[in-house]
# Entry
Amino acid sequence: MTDPLLSIRDLTIALPKGADRRYAVEDVSYDVERGEIMCVVGESGSGKSMAANALMGLLPKGVRATHGEVIFDGQNLLTLTEKQHRRLRGLRIGMIFQEPMTALNPLMRVGAQIAEVFEAHGQYSAKERQARALALLEEVGIPQPDKAIRAYPFQLSGGQRQRVMIAMALALEPELLIADEPTTALDVTTQAQILELIRDLQQRRGMAVMFITHDFGVVAEVASRVCVMREGRIVELGSADEVLNHPQHAYTRALIEAIPSNLIPQAQSPRQQAPLLEVRDLNKVFRSRGGLFKPAREVVALRDVSFQLAPGETVGIVGESGSGKSTLGRCVVRLERPDSGTLLLSGTDFSALNKSELRRQRWRVQMIFQDPYASLNPRTRVGYAIAQGPMANGVSRRDAMKQAGELLDLVGLGAVAVDRFPHEFSGGQRQRIGIARALALNPELIVADEAVSALDVSIQAQILELLEDLKQKLSLSLLFITHDLRVAAQICDRIIVMQHGRIVEQGSAEAVFLSPQEAYTKQLLDAIPGRATELASA
Amino acid sequence: MLYVRLITMRLLKAVVVLFMIIIFNFVLIQLAPGDPAAILAGEAGATDEEFLRQLRERFGLDQPMYVQLWRYVSGVAMLDFGFSYRQQMPVLDLILARLPATLLLTGTAFVLSLALGIVAGSLAAARVKKPSGSIIMALALLFYATPLFWVALMSVVLFSVYLDLLPAYGMYTVGAGHTGMALVLDVAKHLVLPATTLALFFMAIYTRMTRASMLEASQQDFVKTARAKGLKNSVIQRRHILRNALLPIITLAGLQAGQMVGGAILTETVFAWPGIGRLMFEALQQRDYNLLLGIFFFSAALVIVFNIITDLVYRLADPRIKEAS
Amino acid sequence: MSFFARFAQNRGALVGLIILMTIILMAILAPFVFPESPWRMVQRPFLPPMEVEGFPLGTDTMGRNVAAGIMHGAWVSLLIGLVSTSVALMIGVPLGAIAGYYGGLVDDALMRFTEFFQTIPNFALAIVLVAIMQPSITSIVLAIAIVSWPPVARLVRAEFMSLRHREYVEAARLVGQTNRTIILRQILPNTLSPIIVLASLMVATAILLESALSFLGLGDPNVMSWGYMIGAARTVIRQAWWLSFFPGVAILLTVLALNLVGEGLDDALNPKLARERS
# Structure
């Protein structure tokens, strides 16, 4: 009936010289209609945020649009002067970002930061601005808005900060809201709340939303239409129903299938063997040391945690940030020392070993780390990085290096990789190297701490496949720590749900996912984005 | 209440540091080659054995070491820094008489360098890659690399000898007998050259720091947020970038206070400014070690005062710290 | 891009390197160009520059050749700058590494110690040390090292603190490597580039400190140094400006060159930062 609110036509954005490709996006065209939520989906490096940055006039230095137009309400935004552009930002187009922790000025009160939006566009008196800021905070559902308005950002939680960001973006009732990965940095339950808030506000105000995300689950929750991007080009464009349920392009299908949650785990036959790992009444409290006038602070990370892990079994520890799941993993590998409790590893009390004894026995439990970019020493060749473990345990350098080659072959990188440096590998490949390193000592148990969380979905799927494969070949025992229930569902035999340092529920993966007993587990499962759609289509 | 607690804590810490300096001084005297009595007397009449014997008795140098330490520490604690045999006056009196001049000089230079440095640094940050920005940075580097005493000497040659614009020596015109406003003006005129030369080096440091800090702050996410609000660039620079960039500069300013006291020794020497820096130079030339150590102690105390002030300012500027403490 | 290509991209750094090379050359050639001691009186005093052949920079109050003093002084400045920086690194790097790696009480104790040295006004401490130990090359080097190690310790500590919980370090601990191996092989190599950059700037600061000490009459009485030349000419500044001027320019150029080279090293060793900065 009418022209779309926003129309992107043949947009091409050039990257500066020396980047890994010439164009960030190439010949991209899509529309955003009034009152709809348009989801732009893609993995990292797909150029999904570029068009949004171009239309806001916020492209990074050296990056510029070379071709095409971005028509917003009849006006080509690419030809605007900085001054004209500025008048549009905040007033007619609002934007929220991924990192609520850093997106607010740490030195300004929340109220002042919201009032700034009115000030930037010369609206209302100072007093009126404060009143409106308060009303906005109320609208986005911040508890005790009269207090929050005087708070500094560091006094708010991540979810609350993202609400403040939303309040700011919506202050002048823009016609278009751009949300750039607004929930990626948040816990699942907070993510569900923020998604609901955005959906709710969008409907109430009838504005258009351009929602940029990497997560198809989130897409299923909010999208009216979807645009799938890959390496700077549009792969598929259509209504949410079409793209999610009848994807045409192989890449889209692969992405949707890569979401692990489509599998409901098979029941495993119960094992009768003696446990490999037996954790009894583990407690850990972190204390910040107090000073002369400063009270000490305590954070309880683990409280009476007990569980068992049978040989060849994969146990998943799931929970949100602050649940103590990572501390548990670090206690098991003895990077942290538990305050009390025992850690029996095939009968030896791992928590009671003294320093030198521990160093000699460390090979028995190894770890796969989260961040593929931080887990390899940038100055050490990959082969040597893997060989260091066996060498520290008395294997000769020659044998250790030979074994490193074999392991690299096993994880699918080929033995030739030994002489290369970490920076020559992609994130997924580095994670394979990390796995090879963990295998090098033939450990009895491997702890994987958020081992696939930093990876794109398609890479995530490959790494999970590799782990599954290795599990079969080497009959590995795995303690798999993750915040992502969909990942846990795919790889774990048993699941332990943690909250505030306690185990809330444990049982077979099937039991926990299909008939959760505890309210918190149900809440976590309900918060998984896209779950409703998935169950409907299943 | 919070501030009272904070200041008490800092003062306690300061007492500990000063105590350590006293011990440090004591150890230095012991380590010095030669007879400690001669050193304390500034080698005055080192040939006179009788005089040295009297000194040893007087300073208790014939006593066991711990008694000596106790006497020294308790003496300094009572602000007794001993006697300057060269100047025939108690060390404390000498220092106190010279302290106001030093405070005036370093205070002026501190404010001047900080204000100008922040302004120049913000300008340079806003004009990255433009010629004006590069010129500011080149000048800052030049001042940073120039020896302070040499700038002082050259400015004497230029402004005093050749141009005859400003007085080069002393704090006021001797024998002019100025009073009231005339005296203030006279001192101000004498202050221009020493304060400016002392400030130049520190201005260079603050300029470089401000620019680096602002460029770093401008990479932060909240700057993007501010732009998305439609704020003017000048407002973003001032309210968001500069405010965040100032925090590390305050810290640096506190650390640099010690350097400034050191710089004052050189400027006061060149300009014959009657402060403790000049006094230190005189003590050096006369090998008056007792006086030297007294001045050393006082300059450290001065730095501690500067540090406490910057600490308080930092707490005013950063709301996150209040919460934490 | 090679290390040198990245370094040479910073044109200032290239200029700095050329100046520095020239000064090093001056220091090496000094004994050949002016084989006689720079302390020797060779002409009438107060000879202005360019007036008599062989005395391009004139003579000083005692009739000594200023040009000879400057060339011989280059050697002293560079030597003291390098040696005192090395000594400061030998104190600061281990202290910072141990404090940053072990943390806790060890860190607390070492950092209080470092803070103490940072609180004492640098230059005043150096003066007191040299005055009491009696001026000599050794006492000057020691005094400069003692006042300049704290920033090294703080830098190394900060780097170690940020790296010690890096996942690759934890992985090294998990495979059973000893603390010694982890500190020397995993962490230290990754802190080298900021240390190198800081060291190049420290050499510059050390040269400034040495010249200031000599200016106050605390130089080694047996070696000719730029600071001494300026200090000796201070009282005759009205009659003979050049006596202070030329040694000052020499100091200025050396310190400037070292700073430029330091910035170039920073760009070359931390290419990511350099790109962001421009």
Notes: The first strand of chain B starts at residue 83 and ends at 84. Chain B touches chain C through 54 residues (CB under 8 Å). DSSP finds 13 helices and two strands in chain B. Chain B has a mean pLDDT of 85.
